[in-house]
Amino acid sequence: MPVSLLRSLSGLWLIALTHFVHAQQQYVDGYLVKAPADTIRGLLLDEDWKKSPKAIYYKSSADAAPRRVPVSEATAFHLNPTNEHFTARPVTYQLYRREVYAGESPFFSTVQDTVFLQQLIQGGGVTLYSLMDVREDQRFFFGNGEVFTELICYTYHRLKDQRRYTEEVAGYKGQLPFFLKGCKTLSFKTLSYTQASITQHVAAYLNCAHGDSIRVTPAKKAAVDASIAGGMIIFPRSTVPMALSGYQPPRLPRQLAPLALVGVRLRLPRSLNRVFFLAEAGPVVNLPEETFRSGMLFIVSGGSYLGKRSIQPYVQAGMAFAGRLGPGGNYSGGLVLGGGLSYKKKIHLEVRNGLLCLVRVAI
What we know:
11-stranded antiparallel beta sheet, 8-stranded antiparallel beta barrel, Porin, 51% strand, mainly beta, 2 domains
């Protein structure tokens, strides 16, 4: 097959990308609570919210038309697969500037809204909530029947005398011990403003002080796995796209060479593991004789899966470095852009500039 045809095939995934993205909506089993005695079961759209939602899309069945249910028409909803429970609550919180000058207040504005807050833990009359604010930052709210308040923590930079100081207001370190009084064995020395830490301390208090059964939503964790890949690499007429070593390669006919890569992939938890980072390395053989016969290829990239179905398109970008290791070895580097299709984020068929028909499998 001519290299020109192979090169044109590398862009075919873009043609289908729009159609795939349009269809990528994941309705999951769950239920709506419209009143204390009015629970409606059905399918809810899990949108992996970066901001706390003000509405939820509901379908009575897979074939039914979706209906938008605003926060004014529902008191709560629950997603069965992830055991996530959201409750409608009015919230008030302050936004702060990231940088201020000497003598300037970091306070910026006040936000008042009603949204669905995620319940992280509930039991013994205590509820811990998570809010994703308008800046997509996570905040925590504490409620115990008598109070409902934000656990305060914010950081900003103050510019003074041509120097930059970092200041933190950590009100939660005093708030949480005050609210969780009554358990002498509970220590707050390791308390930090993270979902895992705050949830752990609240759960420890409930187990100590009440012994009640509690519902805890586990914190989402990053997924790490290994990957192996095989395919072909295309060498253009200008063999080195970015001559980092100062080596100026001759113009050569395009040429294919086999490629094998092993790597490690990290998928971030707050995006349903759609955002990923990938580090790969592997040998390359039969390189053009005018440069070097064999060498190593190193690729560091990041990207994102699109949509939530089993078959997902994805895009990625990063840097690649190739060359012969050791004294006198030639090396080069360049930008890598690509994408492809994946099946359950495990089996990948992808193309990148300079790479063709790369098949990658996560282990």
